[in-house]
Specification:
Layout lengths: L15 H23 L3 H51 L3 H14 L3 E5 L10 E4 L5 E7 L9 H8 L10 E6 L5 H10 L1 E4 L1 H8 L11
Parallel strand pairs: 3-4, 4-5
Antiparallel strand pairs: 1-2, 2-3
Helix pairs in contact: 1-2, 2-6, 4-5
């Protein structure tokens, strides 16, 4: 089914419930220790205080582990952001044909077969055609736009008029280095076209997000 995307899951924040429970237990144990001490049960008071100290140490170790996991998560997230930024800078520097070839490479990398770059004069909207790992025919239109140029509804309408009827797409997708306008997104939603904007592309390229054929 292709290369699985690797998702980052943020560790939970420290639970106030755990601290509250420990505080309540500590208060009970402290009172119990005082009671035992006052009644002359020195050994009992000692072990009660020992349990209190042990609980505090365990809570401290739990907090340290949580903090370490959060630091590790934040460092990994920053590394992914930098990697994605580098990938997008590379795509923005490409010429349209180079961008089409780059998208074809991603398809091949993630398990597509029969991948072809067919963009050019007379392509009728298709830039990359391939067979997805699950056997479906995927047709991709590539839009290597600058950050200030959005992919609009007319672009989607031209592609929508040919991707299924002419190219026989079972999965139709538009991949861009920019973003889509709201009318373009509405058209895509009503015609079953999958949209990959710059964020989706960056995630796909760095294996931290799905490929177009992996979307529901």
């Amino acid at each position: 089914m292709g290369t699985p995307a690797r998702h980052l899951t943020r560790p939970p924040e420290p639970s106030g419930t755990v601290s509250c429970l420990y505080a309540a237990a500590a208060a009970v144990l402290a009172l119990a220790a005082l009671g035992l001490w006052g009644n002359g049960h020195v050994v009992g008071a000692f072990f009660t205080l020992l349990a209190l100290v042990g609980g505090g140490i365990a809570l401290g170790k739990h907090r340290i582990r949580q903090a370490a996991r959060r630091r590790q998560f934040d460092a990994e997230r920053q590394r992914v952001r930098e990697l994605q930024s580098t990938e997008m800078a590379r795509y923005h520097a490409m010429k349209p044909r180079e961008f089409e070839e780059a998208i074809a490479f991603l398809c091949k990398r993630d398990g597509c077969i029969g991948t072809q770059v067919v963009g050019g004069a007379g392509d009728l909207g298709a830039d990359v055609i391939a067979t997805a790992p699950d056997g479906r025919r995927i047709v991709i239109q590539c839009k290597r736009y600058g950050p200030t140029t959005k992919v609009g509804s007319p672009d989607l309408q031209r592609f929508g008029g040919t991707c299924y009827s002419v190219h026989g797409a079972q999965i139709a997708a538009v991949v861009t280095t920019s973003v889509f306008t709201s009318p373009a997104a509405d058209y895509a939603s009503s015609h079953g076209i999958r949209l990959f904007d710059e964020k989706d592309l960056a995630a796909w390229a760095t294996r931290t997000g799905p490929a177009p054929w992996m979307l529901p």
